[in-house]
Amino acid sequence: MKFNEDALAQETTANYLRDKLGWESVYAYNSETLGKEGTLGRSSEKEVVLTRYLGEALVKLNPGLPTDAYQLAVRTITDATISQSLLLTNRERHEMLRDGVLVEYRDSKGELKKARLRIFDFADPKNNHFLAVRELWIKGALYRRRADVIGFVNGIPLVFVELKAPNRDLQRAYNENLSDYKDTIPHLFEHNAFIVLGNGITAKYGSLSSKYKHFREWKRLDEGDPGVVDMETLLKGICSKNGLLDIFENFILFDDSAGEFVKIIAQNQQVIGVNRAIEAVRERTDRAGKLGVFWHTQGAGKSYSIVFFTRKVHRRIGANFTFLIVTDRDDLDTQIYKTYAGCRVVDNDKSRCRAGSGAELRTFLEEHNKAYVFSLIQKFNQRVTPDSPYSKRDDIIVVSDEAHRTQYGELALNLRNALPNASYIGFTGTPLFGNDEITKRVFGDYVSRFNFQRAVEDKATVPLYYDARGEKLGVAINDLNERIAEKLEQLEIDDIDVAQRLERELKREYHVVTAAKRLDPIARDFVEHFSTEWASGKAMFVAIDKITTVRMYALIKKYWNARIDKLENALGQAADDQDLIYRKRQLAWMRETQMGVVISEEQGEVDKFRKWGLDIIPHRKLMKEGFLGTDGKRVDVEDAFKAEGHPFRIVFVCAMWLTGFDVPSLSTIYLDKPLKAHTLMQAIARANRVNDGKNNGLIVDYGGILKSLRKALATFAGESGEGAGGGEIDPVRPQEELLDELRHEFRVNHRGFVDHDDRAVIPLSSTVLEGEKLAMDRRGVGEAVARHVLGDRVGWREADDLIPIRLVGFADRGHGIAFAGAGLAVDYREALGAGCMPVGPRLLA
After folding, report:
1. For residue 793, what are the contacts with CB-CB under 8 A and spacing of at least 6?
2. What is the pLDDT of residue 454?
3. Burial of 292 (0-12, 13-18, 19+ CB in 10 A)
4. Nearest CA to 206 among 223, 218, 219?
5. Is the distance from CB of 57 to CB of 41 less than 8 angstroms?
6. Quick one: which H or E segment has residue 452?
7. What separation in angstroms does the CA of 577 have from each of 43, 646, 674, 784?
8. Number of Cβ within a 10 Å radius of residue 843
């Protein structure tokens, strides 16, 4: 046996699986005997399925079949696949292993029969064989590799564990080992459920397609647990017999809805929350059909949670359930349908499931063969009386996506009269209000909660900061926000001409918000702000209505071009070559940046916009045809904005894309629309998605929504005791807190460098975050110059006047070129004001 820290981590893991979780364990390093009667029954090192245990499981779980049937099943499971991607093979294997392997055989009378053989006993996980094998040699087409730990269930290699010594970074396990194994012994991963990276102390798990940033921790076994980051908790959660088979059967999806084929493994909070919802379904009679409110903060995977929930109900409770998935907006309806279609759960072209009218919706619900029906609540526009329901079935579950806005009035009454015996569950990204009795009356109380703070702590989302720029510009409309927001919410749900009604019903307030003298400085400030933090990601500008959205586009486009001219004329003022390179890069970025308007279509819009001196036609053309790519192909606006590398970086909206729209590279929301309550929370959460190089999202507030935000937070119903009044903590934090974090970072990091006035040297390189070193002149901060030393190419300069430092300073929000052109010490208040953000070891952890 080898004795080193890596081996210690392997032994600790295998022993835990054996002693605590009931697995068998085998140490195979250079001791495996090949052959049918050998250690594992493998005939060669190329075999990755242990057919000895697979055959035994097939006989035990499917008794009474001829030997030929079992042999055919083993061959089907183990045979090499035709040439295709590893991920496609993994999806095919997963579906076969989950649903059973189909075989044909002849019975004792010689008649041809078909049967689907079970490979796992999902109902009784203990009725399966669990085996952990350490350091097993696997031979590929050209290479031979030794895996740290492989977890076999009934002979199938479902779990791959790559381990490092306790003092080593988990990312090295991903970069140095896992990537190599996928290249050299890819057939080991064809049957894989998930991958674990660990060091004996901490661990993360992910899927075959996961980038390292998408590997997650497993911090709690129950929703009430405080959360612990350690390997033991992860192993208990996903490698216990119950946990592993539950995840394999119910919490794995393959999705291509976003244009990239990926394998999705449910996150910790999704598994816990969905299983709580499943128990509510089992108790639906006692609950009078009120399954509860499933509140998981925006960005925490709500759409996938809905898919996990409905699929598990079908698999574990009853295949006859019909799910009516209801939203109140077209974009939300499209988004949730696309998620289901991308995961191959539904296909509206093959079997219609999206109601095109109220009459078709009624037909769908009267049928008994529809597993899923998608509809806007507005389709319940035909009056329904209690004595003429669409269906009296009690196995219909109404899933309301964003449940707060439309649980009152005639439409909701029609829905409940149409389905009097249905059960109801509400999925939402924002919490209930303390006085929200209507939602509680329809759905019941929370069935699962995953709040703002926990989402950030679990790294499911990034923290949000706000910048009250409207106050600084003198354009904030603080006291008008609440009144306008309430009217806006009503008008937008009813799909009414917002601008016309607002002008008629709130004439004075509307004119204040949309006055040219107010919009002009906002447009100028937007251009100055976003072009300064130009590598920060993408931006969304939110205006009050469609007319103002197009007006803001025109204004910002004008000042954007003027800014380009100004920067071009200032190239001669560059302090040195580095500063010149920075300025030219900024200019190139501004020139290639594309902008677009995304608003819903309406009849007579051409004339409506013409009366305002605006032309909607080029905007509508872009929305319908998309962008023309360099390859001559069209890319629709949604795909272009979601694609991090596409130059469509600025979108102007008023209602569309504010809910149910995920863009990880969207880092800044510019808000100039009165919003309240849930709509406000959903809008600001567009910027909280996790992405490479993104430490936080930024909310730039032009309208003065802070008061509305505080009021919403103060009335949130909560049980955790967090925040005022037992409600939720603030999901956004003022930029001043970012400043405090930076002060702390400099003072606690003794390898940093700061003078007595809290001034810091600014690193220049765009590659300093990639492991290259910095040197700093320590002879005086007033003349301090950051020097970029190119590690292997130049070598570390040994000089008394240079000291190595960890990266602590300012970089632009995309971690590209640093703020200061000449690299001199710069007051970090000035850097923050210019749109830069602090970076340091703690903030980047």
Report:
1. none
2. 80
3. buried
4. 218
5. no
6. helix 452-457
7. 65, 28, 45, 18
8. 15
* Interatomic CA distance for residues 235 and 229, integer angstroms: 11
Euclidean distance between CA atoms 253 and 343, whole angstroms: 6
* Cα 610 to Cα 210, 500, 503, 604, 617, distances in angstroms: 49, 14, 17, 10, 10
Burial class (CB in 10 A: 0-12, 13-18, 19+), 478: middle
Q: What is the pLDDT of residues 558-610, one digit of tens each?
A: 999 999 999 999 998 888 887 888 888 889 999 999 999 999 898 899 999 99
d(CA 623, CA 408) in angstroms, rounded, equals 33
pLDDT above 50 for 752: no
Check if the beta carbon of residue 158 is closer than 8 Å to that of residue 189.
Answer: no
The candidate with the shortest Cα–Cα distance to 131, out of 274, 226, 28, is: 28
Give the burial string for 199-219 (b: 16+ CB within 10 Å, else e): bbebbbbbbbbbebbebbbbb
Cα 271 to Cα 154, 176, 786: the distances in Å are: 24, 30, 48
β-pairing, 194-198 with 372-376?
unpaired
| Lowest mean per-residue pLDDT among 162-171, 308-317, 656-665 | 656-665
Tokens 């109902």 identify what position?
123
Token pair, residue 232, equals 């033991």
The residue with tokens 């320590």 is 778
Q: Is the pLDDT of residue 781 over 70?
A: no
Among the listed residues 794, 792, 830, 795, the one whose alpha carbon sits nearest the alpha carbon of residue 810: 830
| Identity of the highest mean pLDDT range in 38-42, 660-664, 696-700 | 38-42
CA separation for the pair 147, 149 (Å, rounded): 6
Question: Which stretches of 66-158 are DSSP H helices?
Answer: 67-78, 86-99
Measured N-to-C along each axis, helices 67-78 and 86-99 cross at an angle, to the nearest 10 degrees, of 150
Burial of 551 (0-12, 13-18, 19+ CB in 10 A): buried
Paired tokens of 842: 């703690």
Beta bridge partners of 775: 787, 804
Is residue 280 exposed (0-12), middle (13-18) or buried (19+ Cβ within 10 Å)?
A: buried
pLDDT tens digit sequence for 392-445: 999 999 999 875 566 667 888 899 999 999 999 999 887 776 656 677 778 888
Question: Following CA atoms 306, 443, 316, 420 in sequence, which dihedral angle do they give, to the nearest 10 degrees?
Answer: -110
DSSP 37: T
Gap between the Cα atoms of 23 and 244, Å rounded: 12
Q: Is residue 67 classed as helix, strand or coil in its secondary structure?
A: helix
Q: Which residues pair with 195 in a beta bridge?
A: 160, 206
The whole-angstrom separation of Cα 396 and Cα 401 is 16
pTM above 0.85, yes or no: no
Report the helix count and the strand count for the chain, using DSSP H and E.
30, 32
Looking at residue 729, the DSSP 8-state letter turns out to be P
DSSP E strands, 682-725? 697-701
Q: What are phi and psi of 103, to 5 degrees?
A: -130, 155
| Residue 472 DSSP SS3 | helix
Say what percent of the chain tops pLDDT 90: 49
Torsion region of 657: left, alpha or beta (phi above 0 gives left; psi -120 to 50 gives alpha): left
The pLDDT confidence band at residue 479, using thresholds 50, 70 and 90, is: low
pLDDT digits over 329-374, tens only?
887 888 899 999 999 999 998 999 999 888 899 999 988 889 999 9
Q: Cα(401)–Cα(511) distance, rounded to whole angstroms?
A: 34
Helix (H/G/I), strand (E/B), else coil: 161: strand
Question: Measuring CA to CA, how many Å separate 330 from each of 266, 327, 659, 661, 788?
Answer: 27, 8, 11, 12, 51
φ, ψ dihedrals at 789, nearest 5°: -110, 120
For position 318, what pLDDT does the model report?
93
pLDDT at 490: 61
For the chain, how many residues are written?
A: 845
Q: For 14, which DSSP code? A: H
